[in-house]
Amino acid sequence: MDDRLIRLSAALAVPTRFAIYRHVLNTPEGVSVQDVADKFGIHPNVARLHLSRLEEVGLIVGEIEHTGRGGRPGRLYRAVDKSVSISLPHRDYETLADIALTALERFKHNGEQMITAVAEEKGYDLARRYLEEHDLKPETLTPEEIVEHVRRLSGDPGLSPDVEPIDEDAFRLAVHSCAFKEQAFQHPTVCTLHHAYLKGIFRAFLGRSDLIEEQSMIDGAPVCRYIAVRLP
Question: Among 57, 68, 81, 168, which residue carries the largest CB count within 10 Å?
Answer without folding.
Answer: 57
